[in-house]
Amino acid sequence: MFKKISKNENLLHHNEVGAIIQCKDCNRIAIIIHNILYTCDEEEYDYFFELIMNIDLNIEKFLFEIGDKNYVILNTKIENLNMVFDLTQFEYLTDLFIQSKYMKEIHKLLIN
Questions:
Q1: Would you say the C-alpha torsion 44, 47, 49, 52 has a positive or negative sign?
Q2: pLDDT digits (tens, 9 = 90+) for 51-97
């Protein structure tokens, strides 16, 4: 997965749930989670990061049982469209965002 990316992109992090890539030219961020591609600016990325961290800290409030399995459900801006993660997938999602946040900061330091 993502062995080659454009010279104009920084692969911030990737794992089993997806990848986060930032354009070097415009600083927009592509968040790929399974088969969903979401592009955003840094402010929207920070909001999404904080949302995921808040859910992680209060996960018991966000668990929903479907069948015999617990899931974390994230609302989207599109009415009636939600993202669903089992606990393992949500752990990968938090890892994806934490590691990408570190790499985003490292790339900023390298540029300055």
A1: negative
A2: 999 999 999 999 999 999 999 998 887 888 889 999 999 999 999 99
Q: In angstroms, how far is the first alpha carbon of the chain from the final one?
A: 29
Q: In what order do the strands lie in the sheet with 63-66?
A: 63-66, 69-75, 82-86
CA 21/CA 101 separation, integer angstroms? 11
CB within 8 Å of 20: residues ≥ 6 apart:
11, 12, 13, 14, 29, 30, 31, 32, 96, 97, 100
* Cβ 110 vs Cβ 34: under 8 Å: no
Q: pTM of the full predicted structure?
A: 0.88
What is the rounded distance in angstroms from the CA atom of residue 93 to the CA atom of residue 73? 12
The C-alpha atoms of residue 5 and residue 76 are separated, in whole angstroms, by: 28
